[in-house]
Amino acid sequence: MPEPDLTVVGGGLAGCEAAWQAAERGLRVRLFEMRPTRSTGAHTGDRLAELVCSNSLGSLQTNRAGGMLKAELERLGSLLLEVAVESAVPAGAALAVDRQVFAQAVTDRLAAHPRIEIVREEVTGVPRGLAILASGPLTSPALAQALAAFTGTDHLYFFDAIAPIVSADSVDMRIAFRQSRGGEADDYLNCPLDRGQYQALVWALRSAERTPLREFEQTIAQGVRAGAAAFFEGCLPVEIIAERGAQTLAYGPLRPVGLNDPRTGLRAHAVVQLRQEDRHATLYNLVGFQTNLRVDEQQRVFRMIPGLERAHFVRYGQMHRNTFVNAPRVLLPTLQTRARADLLLAGQITGVEGYMGNVATGLLAGWNAARLARGRAPLCLPATTILGALCGYIATAEEKHFQPMKSNFGILPPLEARPRGRLERGQAYADRGLRDLEAFLAAAKDD
């Protein structure tokens, strides 16, 4: 391929979406991914768009913020959303994927694009020329140091945790039962706990030994702020939740609401849900059980869960460091850096959290890179959309206490007429935002 019009660094969700969008708009794109030449310590393979944590991409219902964002991405022509739907596994009202099928499909689509060149090597400095940095939560120390020097500010960091996966045939179905919360489907396996079993599990979680941070997590590049571990509240290790109160898990990921055992008609004190991981329903992950416990402790503690006494673990939970910039100081709502108009950031490194948030920022960065290459002004989506609100939030939040933000209705402008019901309010937000997005796209066609 001739010299590229655009360099994209990072073959995760954001980088893949950005590369595709820019290439579809006529740019020659060179996409750098350092795996397998250099591992991150959390990824397991060399495919693009590998999902490291959960295989769930969140709700499909437009009266939920995550569902509204997916509806926006559908209208915006997101490649990764399209592939996710094609790779879906049953998950009730949520979109979950077979992560191997999903990653392979994304890799194949990008590799076959005539205007995308995939280069398997580490980028250690901020690229010159039109570029998108989408290096993700495990940005290499060398690139993190270069980005810190470029921005003149510290990176922040927190810790993400991954849930374990068990084989379906090792779950005791004499105890576990199939049902989705509310009974609308039977896409989840449910392991019921009585009060005594729940209390024993909480005690075991609190007292179990944890894995020390690995070397790549302890290596903080120059300019990256060191200090005590900080956890992202949306992905807390289960043992940390257990420490916060005796009933915290029972009111959180183990809440039994909407889950009555069909064999008894009774509701347990707590329920551990398992979500289908692959299309063949041979693997299930423990919902809400992100963890940093030692492997032997995971075996001991999680086999205390009724139905998992003989569980076969095909992947154990782990914790890894996540890196992001101080976006209000560094970024514009267009995802351009304030210091250099031709350098854009996308994905988790911007401070946007969640799989689909990463995809969405990649899409916008790819669109805007293409516009910049054509000498046109970059776009800001309407503030009434989830994507527009997310980009506006990270660019204008308070610098001193900036933390990552997931899709939520709280970042949207207030409704003129506010329905009383939560779901009705959510749908009103979605109706307004999608209407504004359609008008925005119609006007942009003439731009």
Describe the structure.
With 447 residues, the chain is of the alpha/beta class. It has two domains: 6-155 and 325-444, FAD/NAD(P)-binding domain (3-Layer(bba) Sandwich), CATH 3.50.50; 161-321, Elongation Factor Tu (Ef-tu), domain 3 (Beta Barrel). It is built from 13 helices and 16 strands. It has helices at residues 13-24, 65-76, 79-86, 99-112, 141-151, 195-207, 215-218, 238-243, 295-302, 327-330, 355-373, 386-396, 422-444, and strands at residues 6-9, 29-32, 56-59, 88-89, 94-97, 116-119, 131-133, 156-162, 165-167, 177-178, 188-193, 270-276, 283-286, 313-315, 318-324, 343-345. The strands form four sheets. Strands 10-11-12-13-9-14 form a six-stranded antiparallel beta sheet. Helix 2 (65-76) runs parallel beside helix 11 and helix 2 runs parallel beside helix 13 (422-444). The longest helix is centred in the C-terminal third of the chain and has 23 residues, at 422-444. It is globular and about 65 Å long.
